[in-house]
Design a protein that fits this description.
Layout: H1 2-13, H2 17-20, E1 29-31, E2 42-47, H3 52-60, H4 62-68, E3 74-79, H5 87-101, H6 104-116, H7 125-134, H8 139-146, H9 149-164, E4 172-175, E5 179-181, H10 189-200
Parallel strand pairs: 2-3
Antiparallel strand pairs: 1-5, 2-4, 4-5
Helix pairs in contact: 5-6, 5-8, 5-9
Length: 204
Amino acid sequence: MKKAFLIALTLVLAPMTAMAADYKEGVHYEVINKGPATPKPEIKEFFSFYCGHCFNFANTVVPQIKSTLPKGVTFNQSHVEFIGREMGPEMSRAFAIARQLGVEAKIEAAMFSAIHEKRQHFTNRDDIRALFIANGVEGKDFDAAANSFMVNAQVANMKRDAENAKIQGVPALVVNGKYLVKTNAIKSYDEMLDIAYFLAEKQD
């Protein structure tokens, strides 16, 4: 019983470890924006469907983030287009379409599986459309969203955010629009999350 209590206590306190850690600018994170932070605390993951590490991150770390996210902190995702050559921008659009249609989680899982497990090769937007249809989306709904104002705006915003944050590799975490978690000094994804949680509650 005592052992079970200690394990439970450890799990409860796990998200709080970041508060006690001594994370330093230039070592564990860098300031990418000298201006004001986002209105509310936010952790944003930059990823690519073509990135194998992002596939693993989606399966193992993203669920952990969603279950341990500090109160008042939101989690968002942004697709980058610099991986995948000519299909990179199309994959960013695919993610925006999925978000617009409210099937983000289903399409994200299906796309990762198609690329990294089924080894499917996507060559154009029609291939992406077929994946949406295979996962329950009406073709007419995909077509209506594909070049809509809202999707175009999302694609532009994701590209701008990646450029502003100087994202060069993924998965990457940007916190409050101000801090980029540095990955060259971390030893695990758990440490990466600790740093992100620390920064989300950082008072400037």
